[in-house]
Specification:
Blueprint (H helix, E strand, L loop, with lengths): L1 H4 L4 H9 L3 H19 L12 E2 L5 E2 L9 E8 L2 E8 L3 E7 L6 H8 L2 H8 L3 H22 L10 E5 L4 E5 L10 E7 L4 E8 L8 E12 L2 E15 L5 H6 L10 E4 L4
The structure holds coenzyme A.
Coenzyme A (COA) binds next to strand 3 and helix 6.
Length: 266
C-alpha cells in the first residue's frame, strides 16, 4: 500500500486524507493505482506520471494534449471489487455491482427503467428477475458512463434487450445517435459481483475484441506492472458472447483460471 501511495498526485493524496473510513481509503488507493498501472501497461510511461482531466460531469480522462490521449478509460467500484476498462480511440464505460445489495430491484426498475425493460423483466419467472435486473442495471450504467454525461441522460431514454446471444440497445430519442455503433458485454465476475462494459465503435460493421482479466497492480524488481489472471471464456468479441449463459453459470462451476502473467513493467 505505501507503494500505491507513492503513485498519487498531491491532489489525490488530499482526497484520500478526506475519506473518513478505512475501507473507502483502501478502495480509493487501489482504484488510483489500478488506473495508473493499467494505462502504463499500454505505454512506456511510469504510472506516477499520468495527469488526469475531467469533463463537466466528472468523467476522468487523459487531457487532449497528452500523447496517449487516444487511450480512453473508465473506472467503477463496489464493495469488494474495483474495475478499470481501457480502450483505444473509442469511448468506453464500465460498471460493477454487488448483486447482494439490490433487493428492491423490481421497484427500482419500475421507477427508473424504460417501459419495455419493465415489461421484459415482469415477463420472466420470478427466480430470474433479480439476475436480469442487475444485468440491466450494469448495462445501463456502463452505457451512461461511456457517454460521460452522468445522470443527465435519463435512464428511460434508452432500453436494453438481453437475448440469448447478446444485449442490444434501442434509443427512445433521436439525440443519442446510431444504436448500431454500440457493443456491450455483461458477465458474472464471481458469486457476488456482476459487471458490464459498453464500447462505441467507429462504424456499424466493426467488431470489438475484448479481454477481461483479474489483475493486481504490483512492483517487481522496481518496475510496475499488472499481475494478470485470464480465463479463456473472458476473451472474445463484444456482443457475440453467450450472455445469458455467462450470467447463469454458477461461480462454483466456472472454469478455474489456469495461468498468471506479468505485463511488461514501466
Ligand atoms: C457517476 C456515475 C457516473 C457513476 O456512479 P456510481 O455507479 O456510483 O459509481 P462507479 O463506481 O460505477 O463509478 C465511479 C467512477 O466513475 C467515474 N466517473 C465519474 N463521473 C463520471 C461520468 N460522468 N461519466 C463516466 N464516468 C464517471 C469516476 O472515475 C468515478 O470514480 P472516482 O470518483 O473514484 O474516480 C453516475 O452514473 C451516477 O451517479 N450514477 C448513479 C447510480 C445510479 O442511479 N444508477 C442507476 C443505474 S440503472
Amino acid at each position: 500500500m505505501p507503494q500505491y501511495l507513492s503513485l498519487l498526485t498531491a491532489d489525490e493524496r488530499q482526497r484520500l486524507a478526506r475519506l473518513a473510513f478505512e475501507d473507502l481509503k483502501h478502495e480509493f488507493l487501489l482504484t488510483r493505482a489500478l488506473c495508473r498501472v493499467a494505462l502504463s501497461s499500454y505505454t512506456d510511461r511510469h504510472p506516477g506520471t499520468w495527469v488526469f482531466a475531467s469533463n463537466a460531469y466528472g468523467r476522468p480522462s487523459l487531457p487532449p494534449d497528452d500523447p496517449a490521449a487516444h487511450l480512453s478509460f473508465n473506472l467503477s467500484n463496489t464493495c469488494g471489487l474495483v474495475a478499470c476498462a481501457v480502450a483505444s480511440g473509442r469511448p468506453i464505460g464500465i460498471d460493477v455491482e454487488d448483486a447482494a445489495r439490490h433487493h428492491e430491484g423490481e421497484k427500482i426498475a419500475e421507477r427508473f427503467f424504460s417501459p419495455d425493460e419493465v415489461r421484459a423483466l415482469r415477463a420472466l419467472p420470478s427466480v430470474e428477475r433479480h439476475e436480469r435486473f442487475i444485468q440491466l442495471w450494469t448495462l445501463k450504467e456502463a452505457y451512461i458512463k461511456a457517454k460521460g454525461l452522468g445522470m443527465t441522460l435519463p435512464l428511460d431514454s434508452f432500453s436494453f434487450s438481453c437475448g440469448a446471444q447478446q444485449a442490444s440497445i434501442v434509443f427512445h430519442d433521436v439525440d443519442q445517435g446510431d444504436p448500431g455503433l454500440w457493443r456491450f458485454r455483461a458477465w458474472r465476475v464471481d458469486e457476488r459481483h456482476r459487471a458490464a462494459l459498453a464500447v462505441k465503435c467507429a462504424s456499424a460493421g466493426e467488431q470489438i475484441a475484448f479481454r477481461i482479466s483479474e489483475v493486481m497492480p504490483a512492483v517487481h524488481r522496481g518496475r510496475w506492472g499488472l499481475l494478470c489472471r485470464d480465463t479463456p471464456e473472458h476473451c472474445g468479441v463484444a456482443g457475440k458472447a453467450a450472455m445469458d449463459e455467462a450470467m447463469a453459470q454458477p461461480a462454483s462451476e466456472a472454469k478455474a483460471p489456469t495461468w498468471y502473467s506479468w505485463t511488461r513493467g514501466t
